[in-house]
Amino acid sequence: MSSSFLSFWRSSVLSRQLARLSVFLLISASLASARDLAVVSNKANNIKAITVPDLVKICKGESNRWPDGKPVTLIMRSPTSPGMRMVLEKIYGMSEKDVAELIVAANHGRANHPAILVVAADNDVINQVASLPGAIGIVDVYSINSSVEILKLGGKSPLEPGYLLHGN
Questions:
Q1: Is the same domain home to 55 and 116?
Q2: Do 148 and 166 form a contact (C-beta atoms < 8 A)?
């Protein structure tokens, strides 16, 4: 075999391997960002479900009390985190920057009991929701533990067909 043929063959094999790797990485990235999220509640809240319009009001800081009088606090990860993209699109209908500004405005004048708390990770959301009466949070379904209640959203449970915060 000639050396030019071997060079061509090696570069062809290398090109195919790089193409396969690129496709694999693209698929992995899209699957990683397509998370199933759930709305969770402090166990003392005595609620089992929430409507989408009510969740939107809470997420925008427009509802500050539950029907029983307890103050409402939403616990969430940063709007800039990749896992929150779906929440920005389906709940807020706003950009990351607009949601960040909304959070500041919603918390203005509520130093003792903020409307929205932003934390670093899902386990922080769970811990804050579990420790703060009146709190709800939005987390990856695989982060949930027994310290919080899972709420139905719009009559559907997480992972159920038609659930609003389903990642795919």
A1: yes
A2: no
Give the Cα separation of 159 and 63 in Å (integer).
27
Q: How many structural domains comprise the chain?
A: 2
Compute the half-sphere exposure of residue 50: CA atoms within 13 Å on the CB side of its CA. Answer: 29
Per the structure, the complete domain to which residue 8 belongs is given by 1-33
Model confidence pLDDT, tens digit, residues 10-69: 666 555 554 454 434 344 433 344 589 999 999 999 899 999 999 999 999 999 899 888
Count CA within 13 A, CB hemisphere, residue 133: 6
Q: Residues 26, 72: one domain?
A: no
**Same domain (yes/no): 6, 84:** no
pLDDT tens digit sequence for 112-160? 889 999 999 999 999 999 999 999 999 999 999 999 999 999 999 999 9
Asked whether 79 and 100 are in contact (CB, 8 A), the reply is yes
pTM summary value? 0.79
User: Kind and range of the H or E element at 54?
Assistant: helix 52-59
